[in-house]
Write a structure and sequence with these properties.
The complex is a heterodimer of chains A (188) and B (147). By secondary structure, chain A is mostly helical. Chain A has two domains: 3-89, Rna Polymerase Sigma Factor, Chain: A; 109-184, Orthogonal Bundle (Arc Repressor Mutant, subunit A). Chain A is 70% helix and 0% strand. Chain A has helices at 8-16, 20-42, 45-62, 72-89, 109-127, 131-142, 147-154, 158-176, 180-184. In chain A, helix 4 (72-89) crosses helix 7 (147-154) and helix 7 (147-154) crosses helix 8. Chain A starts with 7 loop residues before the first helix and ends with a helix. The mean pLDDT of chain A is 88. Chain B is mainly alpha-helical. Chain B has a domain at 6-55. In chain B, 65% of the residues lie in helices and 0% in strands. Chain B is built from seven helices and no strands. Chain B has helices spanning 6-16, 25-35, 39-55, 65-72, 74-89, 96-115, 125-137. In chain B, helix 1 packs parallel to helix 3. The chains are: A mainly alpha (188), B mainly alpha (147).
């Protein structure tokens, strides 16, 4: 049986027993969501990669600590989130000056430039939000965690999460929609 | 669970955006039903969808091969790191053989020590006489216990 067909809970159980093949299957399944989480929280690709690597190192060492009260993916989100928050607290604030992801080369040049500009402005708007508002937006909007899981990850109530989300979206709207006509031609 | 009404519906849209999949699962059906008949919700959904669309423009490239390799090789690196540390202190090949020998010797020593009867401390006639002479020469009293 291929390990890729196994559920996360079975994989993490094997990882706890020291199975490197199960670890590989688990890491390949979760690396991109965790990288996206780190990159959006930190606004820095290189730091984000370091955090993801550290997360997987902790998973390898401490897989036995996982409890089935949370999904494995949610547990790994929480590890990565805590690593990123510690990193943010330890550094001076930074604002990304480049988009997190270069635009697709399939599009015409002028469209690529516009996409890059939008992505850059969104990245800046996200980076300039207060940390907790940005975390809430990233966990719910981008990572698509259920509200309860996002709240647990941030160790807050669902009501507090919704308050952060509302304030975060208002901040993003103020930063982005005033320029929406310039950006994508929408009638904001 | 909060009862669904227009105020709660607008709060959900403001917090979670226009995509119902992001709304709290236990309130989703009631919120969608109410949204169909609420002009205020229609406007809020349209505004939220515009912001959602802009946020969707920010993508993160997937992990490159270098990062994937670094992570999938972590167990191997951990093992080889431990092996390197072991070689630093024991450069004579496999460490399990001397370790097992040492452990076996320790176990035998403990078993033999526990099984043997305690040894009585006695003096031979010659040893007693020598002891008495030494004590007497030192000015001591052979009857007094040594301090």
């Amino acid at each position: 049986m291929s390990l890729t067909s196994l559920q996360d809970a079975e994989l993490i159980s094997r990882v706890a027993d020291g199975d490197p093949v199960a670890f590989q299957a688990l890491s390949e399944r979760h690396i991109n969501p965790l990288l996206a989480l780190s990159a959006r929280l930190l606004g820095d690709r290189s730091e984000a990669e370091d955090m993801v690597q550290e997360c997987f190192l902790r998973v390898w060492r401490h897989a036995g600590r996982w409890k089935p009260t949370a999904a494995v993916g949610t547990w790994m989100h929480r590890i990565t989130y805590n690593l990123c928050i510690d990193r943010i607290r330890a550094r001076k604030p930074t604002v990304p000056i480049e988009p997190l992801d270069p635009p697709s080369q399939d599009k015409p040049a002028d469209q690529r430039i516009q996409d890059q500009d939008i992505a850059r402005r969104v990245g800046i708007a996200l980076a300039t939000l207060p940390d907790r508002q940005r975390s809430a937006i990233v966990l719910v909007h981008y990572q698509e965690l259920p509200a309860r899981d996002a709240a647990n990850t941030m160790e807050i109530s669902v009501e507090a999460l919704e308050s952060l989300l509302s304030r975060g979206r208002r901040g993003l709207r103020a930063a982005l929609l005033e320029e929406a006509t310039d950006l994508i031609g929408v009638n904001a | 669970m909060t009862q669904m009404n227009e105020t709660r519906l607008l709060a959900i849209i403001e917090a979670y955006g226009a995509e119902p999949n992001r709304w709290p699962e236990e309130e989703r059906a009631a919120a969608l039903a109410l949204a169909e008949h609420s002009p205020a919700a229609h406007q809020a959904l349209a505004d939220a969808a515009t912001l959602d669309s802009l946020l969707g423009e920010s993508l993160v490239a997937p992990a490159d091969l270098s990062l994937v390799t670094r992570i999938t090789n972590l167990p191997e690196q951990r093992s080889s790191g431990l092996a390197a540390l072991t070689r630093l202190f024991w450069p004579f090949g496999a460490i399990w053989q001397p370790a097992m020998g040492l452990a076996a010797a320790a176990i035998i020593g403990i078993v033999v020590g526990a099984a043997a009867p305690p040894e009585e401390i006695t003096m031979s006639q010659g040893q007693s006489e020598t002891y008495a002479m030494v004590i007497t020469a030192a000015g001591g009293d052979i009857e007094e216990p040594l301090q």
